[in-house]
Amino acid sequence: MAEDKAAAILAALGGQDNIVEIEPCITRLRCELQDGAKVDEAALKTAGAHGVMRQGTVVQVVVGPEADTIAEDIEELL
Amino acid sequence: MSVQVLSPVTGLAAPISEVPDPVFSQAMVGPGVAVKPEGGAARAVAPVAGTLSTLHPHAFVVTTDDGGRAVLVHLGIDTVKLEGAGFTLHVAKGDRVRAGQEIVTWNPSEVEQQGYSSVCPVVALEVGRQALSDVTDDAGVSAGDPLFTVDS
């Protein structure tokens, strides 16, 4: 279940090839991406994101207090 | 049962909508109150009794013993980028803490000098706005003073 969420978020961020770095910060994933345009905001929200903030190649995905766990799960998928 | 949430720092309580970060100001992770800390070396204390479920130098979450509520304290905005510099932890992740127990010592003035806001969002995670009552968001508070109550 948790792994599914991580996989869904990873896919919505454009897949593993698009990830430069993912850093969890309490309630959000700070994601540095190769291409910010590949982000699928609707899919992120479907995957459980409360909000998405985009600034070019840096995308913050607000996932709530389980951010640390989700980031670990995503790291395992990379 | 409701839980009284204490101010983690001494300063000026303000509406969370004034926090310069949309995650907090738009209550994306839950409602709460902001506290603008007074300057100088300071301590941040646990807002509720419970377990430190998340602990970073610049932020922590205390989950109440019944597991019903979790309260996030974030010391300044974007302060993850300071990578812990200037923050001294006095507890470890997973520790049980008393409400009002010292968690971190830091210096809000130094945070401001490095270009970050030192405002401290205090957030009741994953509850609706209506869960908050007895809210103090326009008064001076000392660390350990009541800030709001969360229904559970």
From TrEMBL, chain A:
<feature type="domain" description="PTS EIIB type-1">
    <location>
        <begin position="3"/>
        <end position="78"/>
    </location>
</feature>
<dbReference type="Pfam" id="PF00367">
    <property type="entry name" value="PTS_EIIB"/>
</dbReference>
<keyword id="KW-0812">Transmembrane</keyword>
<dbReference type="InterPro" id="IPR036878">
    <property type="entry name" value="Glu_permease_IIB"/>
</dbReference>
<keyword id="KW-0472">Membrane</keyword>
<keyword id="KW-0598">Phosphotransferase system</keyword>
<dbReference type="InterPro" id="IPR018113">
    <property type="entry name" value="PTrfase_EIIB_Cys"/>
</dbReference>
<keyword id="KW-0762">Sugar transport</keyword>
<feature type="active site" description="Phosphocysteine intermediate; for EIIB activity">
    <location>
        <position position="25"/>
    </location>
</feature>
<dbReference type="GO" id="GO:0009401">
    <property type="term" value="P:phosphoenolpyruvate-dependent sugar phosphotransferase system"/>
</dbReference>
<dbReference type="GO" id="GO:0016301">
    <property type="term" value="F:kinase activity"/>
</dbReference>
<dbReference type="GO" id="GO:0090563">
    <property type="term" value="F:protein-phosphocysteine-sugar phosphotransferase activity"/>
</dbReference>
<keyword id="KW-0418">Kinase</keyword>
<dbReference type="GO" id="GO:0015764">
    <property type="term" value="P:N-acetylglucosamine transport"/>
</dbReference>
<dbReference type="GO" id="GO:0008982">
    <property type="term" value="F:protein-N(PI)-phosphohistidine-sugar phosphotransferase activity"/>
</dbReference>
<keyword id="KW-0808">Transferase</keyword>
<dbReference type="InterPro" id="IPR050429">
    <property type="entry name" value="PTS_Glucose_EIICBA"/>
</dbReference>
<keyword id="KW-1003">Cell membrane</keyword>
<dbReference type="InterPro" id="IPR001996">
    <property type="entry name" value="PTS_IIB_1"/>
</dbReference>
<protein>
    <submittedName>
        <fullName>PTS sugar transporter</fullName>
    </submittedName>
</protein>
<keyword id="KW-1133">Transmembrane helix</keyword>
<keyword id="KW-0813">Transport</keyword>
TrEMBL record, chain B:
<keyword id="KW-0762">Sugar transport</keyword>
<keyword id="KW-0813">Transport</keyword>
<dbReference type="GO" id="GO:0016301">
    <property type="term" value="F:kinase activity"/>
</dbReference>
<feature type="domain" description="PTS EIIA type-1">
    <location>
        <begin position="21"/>
        <end position="126"/>
    </location>
</feature>
<protein>
    <submittedName>
        <fullName>PTS glucose transporter subunit IIA</fullName>
    </submittedName>
</protein>
<keyword id="KW-0418">Kinase</keyword>
<keyword id="KW-0808">Transferase</keyword>
<dbReference type="Pfam" id="PF00358">
    <property type="entry name" value="PTS_EIIA_1"/>
</dbReference>
<dbReference type="InterPro" id="IPR001127">
    <property type="entry name" value="PTS_EIIA_1_perm"/>
</dbReference>
<keyword id="KW-0598">Phosphotransferase system</keyword>
<dbReference type="InterPro" id="IPR011055">
    <property type="entry name" value="Dup_hybrid_motif"/>
</dbReference>
<dbReference type="GO" id="GO:0005737">
    <property type="term" value="C:cytoplasm"/>
</dbReference>
<dbReference type="InterPro" id="IPR050890">
    <property type="entry name" value="PTS_EIIA_component"/>
</dbReference>
<dbReference type="GO" id="GO:0009401">
    <property type="term" value="P:phosphoenolpyruvate-dependent sugar phosphotransferase system"/>
</dbReference>
